[in-house]
Specification:
Strand order of the largest sheet: 1-2-3-4-5
Radius of gyration: 17 Å
Number of helices: 8
CATH topology: TIM Barrel
Number of domains: 1
CATH superfamily: Aldolase class I
Shape: globular
Largest sheet: 5 strands, parallel
Helix content: 40-55%
Number of strands: 5
Distance between the termini: 45 Å
CATH class: Alpha Beta
Structural class: alpha/beta
Mean pLDDT: 84
Order of helices and strands: HEHEHHEHEHEHH
CATH architecture: Alpha-Beta Barrel
Length: 218
């Protein structure tokens, strides 16, 4: 099957959500690992997601170059071609990307998708993740809203991460963790309105990862 377009991707995500099951999402660092995921999903007769991180993209571009966006493009281009030979859908997604890497990873990939769309070609990736968990929620959601507005114009799904609940985030200072978790109810409401406004012309799927904002922690 071809890499799913926006409508098909949304249907796959909706089916998983409705059926209360998780889609397998596997990070890859090369064509070899991407091929392994394609084969595994096909043998399991399961749709899934191939993900590329900043580190994975850098590795895929070659240890001399270490260009995250270039490596991600190389992997995605291969998956677009190879996936057509398999009887399952495999979406393409980029994993955790912090603020300081947006300009060198996610945004160049969005630009590549915009070029492809202008030429009548499908999106390179179907979704991208912005990880602002090391920021205050105010800054995190400001950046997320701006990203969402651009994503909505290009049929891209935005995944975001907020707060610091454990794991790698525990390396953050106590002040940073506190600032990333606490936010007044009124500000929650204003940010919900901002995000919904940015996505007014796109599918509700663009807002799926933001639905928690409507139930703020007080």
């Amino acid at each position: 099957m071809p890499v799913p377009d926006f409508k098909t991707y949304c249907a796959i995500l909706n089916r998983a959500r409705g059926g209360r099951f998780a889609l397998p999402a596997v990070n890859v660092t090369s064509l070899t690992t991407a091929n392994a995921v394609l084969r595994g999903l096909a043998e399991s007769k399961a749709d899934g997601i191939i993900q590329v991180s900043t580190g994975g993209g850098a590795f895929a571009s070659g240890t001399k170059i270490k260009d995250s966006a270039l490596g991600a493009i190389s992997i995605a281009e291969h998956v677009h071609r190879a996936a057509e030979r398999y009887p399952i859908y495999v979406a393409l997604h980029t994993d955790h990307c912090l603020k300081d890497k947006l300009d060198k990873f996610v945004l160049p990939l969005v630009e590549e998708t915009e070029k492809r769309r202008a030429a009548g070609r499908p999106n390179l990736f179907g979704s991208h993740m912005f990880d602002g968990s090391n920021l205050s929620l105010h800054e995190n959601l400001d950046i997320s809203a701006k990203l969402l507005e651009r994503f909505a114009k290009n049929d891209l799904v935005l995944e975001i991460e907020t707060g610091a609940v454990g794991g790698e985030e525990m390396t953050l200072s106590a002040t940073t963790r506190r600032n990333s978790i606490q936010l007044p109810r009124t500000h929650w409401k204003s940010r919900v309105a901002l995000i919904q406004s940015a996505a007014a012309t796109c599918s509700q799927r663009h807002l799926e990862t933001c639905t928690a904002f409507t139930n703020p922690v007080t």
